[in-house]
Amino acid sequence: MVDIATRVWNHKWKIDPIIRSLIDTDFYKLLMCQSIFRNRQDAQVTFSLINRTKSIRLAELVDEGELREQLDHIRSLRLTRGESTWLRGNTFYGKRQMFTPAFMEWFENLKLPPYHLEKRDGQYELTFEGTWPEVMLWEIPALAVIMELRSRAVLRDMGKFELQVLYARAMTKLWEKVEKLRPIDNLRLADFGTRRRHSFLWQDWCVQAMTEGLGSRFTGTSNCLIAKNRDLEAIGTNAHELPMVYAALADSDDALRQAPYDVLADWHEEHDGNLRIILPDTYGTEGFLKGAPEWLAGWTGIRVDSGDPAEGAERAIKWWKAQGEDPREKLVIFSDGLDVDKIGELHKQFAGRCRVSFGWGTMLTNDFKGLVADDALAPFSLVCKAVAANGRPTVKLSDNPNKAMGPEDEIARYKRVFGVGEQVGMEVVV
Q1: Measured between alpha carbons, how far is 303 from 242 in angstroms, rounded to an integer?
Q2: φ and ψ at 333, to 5 degrees?
Q3: Please, which residues bridge with residue 51 across strands?
Q4: Among 262, 340, 224, CA closest to 35
């Protein structure tokens, strides 16, 4: 097992780069990338880094030269033969050859497009522009680089023994969480923590700890590279990016209203089983379910990713019943701001009423709260989102208005089109 503290103490990034592979990314990005490659590959999309935690002034903490070196290194990466073989030949969600030969040939020749980096008001403005299938693959590596450079900046002045104690405490903290999860019957939990991890080595350690500590109740990881290296299931379906860009490309209010369902119609043609998971909250879950076509009720489940998670699950159960479906056969995936107490609470509330699963993110792979002075390693809310498509701004409303993004006039238009009324704001921690 890797001695993380010693690796941090001896750090030379060219030996230990933050992003080691083009598949050091979340599985859902590759699934979506293939769908976009098939359906909307010519769309021109812009992604932008957004730090929601303004109190953390990243441009004053992270060295610009180091950041550029890491980003340039990512642009030098290509899919290796072993990685290509894994993607072409492995079985994902019970399906072999999930990725088509045409997509794989494109991916094997991919070089990520250039980036644009500036400093403004203590923050980095980092943007990526290009064709949608290419530029979307910057999102996860960009987030992981910023998060780990922040960790390295905080750890830089620590001594060797101080680092050993820090990681020992962090390991103990995680193992105590594992011990709290063990008594939960029929638990199903996966690692969703790539984008805001403390570091690659730490995420890999966390995944190994979960594998040993929870056994079959730990269902896999969203990180493709770790899944490949540790012989685990790669976990993931789709994300808000798809409806956000489809909506921005819509030419009328009617087309805008239909865009989230167009996304899932395209997805329906490509995937079945446990990949048919609805993510309904991009423009408000209540309105989405009210206008959903009948065939969507036959999908496997729903992912609850904003707002009050219990309310989201209750809304889904009510909708399934109204559609003549048995909620006990449906899957609800909780994935927003989870930690062990919330996981236990939600499992107790919904076990037996539906199939319950959890995508555990930042508080699995980056919980260093209270372990260093001034809580300088506490996780923070950093995202990298599609902000424009073919020159039009994107919008996200969410079930939590504090997660909304886009120009104010467009937010108002989307609320009108999707019939979004009053919403209750909730703190966005990560």
Answers
A1: 15
A2: -105, 120
A3: 382
A4: 262
The phi and psi torsions of 393 (rounded to 5 degrees) equal -70, 145
Closest-CA residue to 181 (of 361, 332, 330, 342):
342
For the chain, 430 residues long, give each residue's pLDDT as a single digit of tens. Answer: 788 998 888 876 666 899 999 999 999 999 999 999 999 999 999 999 999 999 999 999 999 999 999 999 999 999 999 999 999 999 999 999 999 999 999 999 999 999 999 999 999 999 999 999 999 999 999 999 999 999 999 999 999 999 999 999 999 999 999 999 999 999 999 999 999 999 999 999 999 999 999 999 999 999 999 999 999 999 999 999 999 999 999 999 999 999 999 999 999 999 999 999 999 999 999 999 999 999 999 999 999 998 899 999 999 999 999 999 999 999 999 999 899 999 999 999 999 999 999 999 999 999 999 999 999 999 999 999 999 999 999 999 988 887 889 999 999 999 999 998 777 666 665 6
Listing from the earlier edge strand, what are the strands of the sheet with 392-393? 115-120, 123-131, 44-51, 382-389, 392-393
- In 169-206, which positions are buried (b, 16+ CB within 10 angstroms) versus exposed (e)? ebeeebeebbeebeebeebbbbbbbbbbbbbbbbbbbb
Burial 323-333 (b: 16+ CB within 10 A, else e): eeeebeebbbb
Note the Cα 285 to chain centre separation in Å. Answer: 19
The model scores a pTM over 0.85: yes
16-52 b/e (C-beta count within 10 Å ≥ 16 → b): ebbbebbbbbbbbbbbbbbbbbebbeebebbbbbebe
Contact indicator for 181, 110 with CB cutoff of 8 Å: no
